[in-house]
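ok so dumb question maybe but i'm new to this and my supervisor (M.) told me to 'just get the structure for Peptidase M13' and walked off. so i did the thing. is this what she meant?? sequence i used:
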Amino acid sequence: MRSGIDTASVDETVRPQDDLFAFANGGWVAHTEIPDDRGRYGTFDTLREAAEEHVRTIIEEVAAGSPAPGSVAAKVGDLYSSFMDEAAVDALGAGPVLADLERVAGVRDASGLMRLLGELGRDGVMGPVIPFVNTDDRDPDRYVVYLEQAGLGLPDESYYREPQHADTRAAYVPHVARMLELVAHPGAQAAAARVVDLETRLAAAHWDKVSNRDPVRTYTLLDRPGLDALAPALDWTAFLEGLGAPAHAFRAVVVRQPSFVTALGEALTEVGIEVWRDWLAWHVVHAHAPYLSAPFVEENFDFFGRTLSGVPKLRDRWKRAVTLVEDALGEAVGQLYVERHFPPHAKERMLELVGHLVEAFRRSLSEVPWMGASTRAEALEKLGAFTPKIGYPDRWRDYSTLEVRAGDLLGNVRRAAAFEVERNLAKLGGPVDRTEWFMTPQTVNAYYNPGMNEIVFPAAILQPPFFDVDADDAANYGGIGAVIGHEIGHGFDDQGSQFDGRGELRDWWTASDRERFQALADALVGQYSLLETRDAPGQKVNGALTVGENIGDLGGLTIGYSAYRIALGDEPAAELDGFTGDQRFFLGWAQIWRGKSRRAEAERLLAIDPHSPMDLRANAVRNLDEFHEAFGTGPGDGLWVPEDERVRIF
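this is what came out, is it supposed to look like this??
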């Protein structure tokens, strides 16, 4: 039986009691260079590269098979080929966006701007507010439109105000100017300054990422008159007509950041329409730059790759082509991916793992001392209603109405965006489709969806080091088992715990239980706010931003370990590769977070990512009594936390 541990990655000069991440992964870190086209590199990336190669093979084989015109196979091949024909794309220069820019230049008033924002939103151009369709948090048996703040070119509102981003701001204005110059925008230098000034104004009204994590604060349900009253200057009728949405789409709408919408209406009134034309011209070019000629691609990458993330090299063209096909026709490719790369027995083993994780969570929820009887009963009911989705969807997406034309790259991108807009708008007024997946099978990731109370594990993550169907249980439970526990844990973290078993945003906690839970969450916030990642020394983690994912990691580890003990039954674990079963469990966890990051990328992620850095996720074990027992830690060790300071939620 294989241990499932990559012993070649272990660095025996480091004590696991001091730094489990460095012990488990130090050998790999020392001998691995971050590829030139990446800001960070690790376990997820190596698996994504493998999936990317598999998808490339599928696409090229499909395209070479002379598929029938109009078939899904032909669409896959034609879309890929339209991106790969670099000479044809370069020959077009700025041509594919000139008609859109003429429409922008023709805007004369606020209503005209709103109509064009809707039209361009169909094509994938981000406006100052983004509509999307999802289940209603307060009524999960229906779909509703949500409105989300947007309108910025930089990653987050903090980039427009915090001193640490001053250099990025200084580089942003000339980047916008150069992009506008590529389309001969009049007075590009001055226009760029106006664009950034307007974005700075919008950013000042944005809610920060911590506020946006609160599902209650970000839920304001309005009817159409209520939405109109929120910002009278915004002509939503014109916007909906431009978007191609039915008039009833905003009959009920959830505004996630109401004060931003009000501020947007004020900006539309107070800022001259010519500035809005500059701003929209920039966003048209920015949105479509990856699909234009080399000067656009290079300038776009120079800022968003080199400046923001420290990445020295643009990804190979075939990789970018694969990404486009995945975005537009992901489930069509996914169906073939599953046939080739996901054996049926892997799904059976995963269902067994999920069963043990759910049982471990049931036992934990039945016993946690901070939870009272009424909350406990609802929590157990919610756990019993969890839906696991493993590998791939039961019903594949229908792409028959998506038109793909050979040799029309940007047209294909626009039509793919419009297809998604129409597919989602068509949900309104219909029954909720609980079979829908929001990741493709070839995606190396997993998620919890509170509105459907489901945990989802695509096929591509179900391979080593996360999951090895032929390896010992310990590493599998430390890997995919803890990931399953993490996703189930999201149902009971600071956000997910506000949704009940049917996916309704409802307060099912007693006040005293919520207070005790919040005290534990706050302790975790305080603990992580003191930590630094080795990839950006001197920069602290935002404990409030990452608390949900940190709760997920803590719960995943705790429940994953309990599930491992359930799987063992009364049998002792064998020692393999010099490690006990318990030690292999924690090493399995640490090795799924193997990775390293360029400093610029590490700093960018600290500002916007709700996940803690990889090394700190591996070292989340510091809070588990079981880790300290497995490795015999004591005072003075790097990962030692006094027993009364350890945070245990589940």
